[in-house]
Amino acid sequence: MQLKRVVVTGLGALTPIGNNADEYWQGLSTGVSGAAPITRFDAEKFKTRFACEIKDYDPNDHFDRKEARKMDPFTQYAHIVADQGVKDSGLDLDKIDVDRAGVIWGAGIGGLKTFQDEVMNFAAGDGTPKYNPFFIPKMIADIAPGMISIKYGFRGPNFTTVSACASGTNAIIDSFNYIRLGMADVFITGGSEAAVTESGVGGFNAMKALSERNDSPETASRPFDKDRNGFVLGEGAACLILEELEHAKARGAKIYAELIGGGMSADAHHMTAPHPEGLGATNVMINALKNANIKPEEVDYINVHGTSTPLGDLSESQAIKNVFGESAYNLNISSTKSMTGHLLGAAGAIEAAACVMAIQNNLVPPTINHFTDDEAFDPNLNFTFNKAQKREVNVALSNTFGFGGHNTSIIFRKFEG
């Protein structure tokens, strides 16, 4: 069968460096760090006392009090960026076939704050069960797309993808496949996460996954630097409106970029550590290139997973060399997690948006916080250290890898009618 073409017609973002897509891009292009001391709770006794939190966020600016109390923050974030994306797309909800419009969303954890608060309240009581009737609906990871579909009346495919830090990208790939197979016209897709909580920070601290550079939070996320010592936890969300090309053209939509392929693979190696030779990362990029029907030398920019962990960064850079060979030296590579921190299940969504905007602006956002070269990395690879670089970006690839060995890659191309 002839596969349909899929384009991006709307963007929304709520991130530690900007509360909409324009602000987010401004933060990315100027190399702003979103890391700062934690304000969500008293972190004084924690090994890590900083994170990349959303700034100036008040749910009452977006929802009435009664409505806000029914949603965990991760669902609130999803609603906000979905609203931004739908408005940005110019979709007329009265003129589309809502039976062919869906919502597929990514969340690695879901309602962590809700779960934590309810259990803590129970433990602090006398043992009598006194749970909020919204406890389960607020907590479950699938509630975000469910609530979005209720708001917009979308009756097409509706579910959440859960693959740890690959969740957001998995959601985008699933949406892409439904459209190009002719099973839907429009998707609200992306991901959200709200894990800056006592249990989130404490749990990742126990794994020794987080940086503990409390004396300099803004420089703690330093992918590919010799002194990298763990990731910085982030929170937020991003939304992409994906649309079948002829559907978008028929309504005169603006088109940001074309989504041309996606790949998936598994490391089949370890619960949390990447394959030491980058096997899963190698396979997923090969799969994405094949799916997009392009050659490695056609890629201009890779937004890497690049979490700032000793093993992960090294494994991914080796995978890039495995896949791209000599053309790896013509690429721009950058980790925007150096600015946003790691948004877990939402990482793939905000980084997909970064790729789309890099194509739109012909600008590669930097990997900030590079101070000391690590001889383990090939010095001839261009990691776009510390400052954004102008270049023609026709094709951009985004990698996201999750605990459990889940690997996803997606590829965007500058739109040409």
Which key terms come to mind for this protein?
417 residues, alpha/beta, Peroxisomal Thiolase, Chain A, domain 1, two-stranded antiparallel sheet, 13 helices, 33% helix
TL;DR?
This protein is an alpha/beta fold. 33% of the residues lie in helices and 18% in strands.
Description:
One of its GO terms (molecular function) is 3-oxoacyl-[acyl-carrier-protein] synthase activity. Its EC number is 2.3.1.179. Belongs to the thiolase-like superfamily. Beta-ketoacyl-ACP synthases family. Pathway: Lipid metabolism; fatty acid biosynthesis. Keywords: Acyltransferase, Fatty acid biosynthesis, Fatty acid metabolism, Lipid biosynthesis, Lipid metabolism, Transferase. The structure is a single chain. By secondary structure, the chain is α/β, with parallel strands linked by helices. It has 2 domains: 245 residues, Peroxisomal Thiolase, Chain A, domain 1 (3-Layer(aba) Sandwich), CATH 3.40.47.10; 152 residues, Peroxisomal Thiolase, Chain A, domain 1 (3-Layer(aba) Sandwich). 33% of the residues lie in helices and 18% in strands. The protein is built from 13 helices and 14 strands. The chain has a 10-stranded mixed β-sheet with strand order 5-4-6-7-1-8-14-13-9-10, with helices on both faces. It has a two-stranded antiparallel ribbon with strand order 2-3. The chain has a two-stranded antiparallel ribbon with strand order 11-12. Strand 9, helix 11 and strand 10 form a beta-alpha-beta unit. Helix 3 crosses helix 6, helix 7 packs across helix 13 and helix 10 crosses helix 11. It starts with 5 loop residues before the first strand and ends with a strand.
